[in-house]
Each structure stands twice: as structure tokens, then as C-alpha cells.
Amino acid sequence: MDKVFEISLLLDFYGQLLTDRQYEIMDLHYNNDFTLTEIAEQLGISRQGVYDNEKRGRALLNEYESKLGLLSKFCEQKEKAEKVQKYLEKLNLAELSPHNKAIIEQVMQEIRELANNI
């Protein structure tokens, strides 16, 4: 997984556990693609201050993930939902009764929505 994308996901899971300033800096940098210099100018602080907050915030996000593992569980669940979806797509629905075909199609729809929304 791309590091920037991973940090962005970690921010989604644990961002509210950071200080308001750390979250703001991390959000501007990882979700809005601001450089450290641009963030420093916008917030009226030094580039070093931005760097220190970003570094501390990233370390905290990684620490939360190592203790709670929410991102890895999320990725695991998404992968499982996609696998189930692929298995269901391999079924030959023409061989099923109309009742069972309708049930399988409903399950496929639910799994597809689950995989897309995770």
C-alpha cells in the first residue's frame, strides 16, 4: 500500500485521537497535498514546527495502529468481501431454481455493496 494512502487511511481511523493542530497539519499534508512550507505559511508557524508536528502525528498514528490494528482489520474484511464476491460470480445461475437464483442474486448485490463501501 502506498505510504501516503496508508497515512491518509490511518488519519480516517485515528485522526480524532491527535491534537487539533496535529490533525490539521496531517490533513493538509496527506489529504490535501500541501507541502510543509505551504502549511507553515497558512498556519503562520515555522516549517520546522510543521515538520515536528507531522512527524509526531505520524508516529502516533502508527502507534495506534500497532496497538489497535483497525486499518489491518479493515483491509482484511474488504479483501474477504471481494473474495466472496468473486466466488459468487463464478456460480452458474442458469442451473438454479428461480427462487434460489433470486436469493443468490440478492446475496451478490449485498456483497458487492459491502465490498464497495468498506
From TrEMBL:
DNA-binding found in the keyword field = yes
Q: What molecular function terms (GO) are annotated for this protein?
A: DNA binding
Q: Which InterPro entries match?
A: RNA_pol_sigma_r3/r4-like (IPR013324), UPF0122 (IPR007394), UPF0122_fam_protein (IPR054831), WH-like_DNA-bd_sf (IPR036388)
DNA-binding is among the record's keywords: yes
Give the protein family. Belongs to the UPF0122 family.
Which HAMAP family has this protein been placed in? UPF0122
User: Under what name is this protein listed?
Assistant: UPF0122 protein EHE19_010470
Instruction: Give the organism the record lists.
Output: Ruminiclostridium herbifermentans
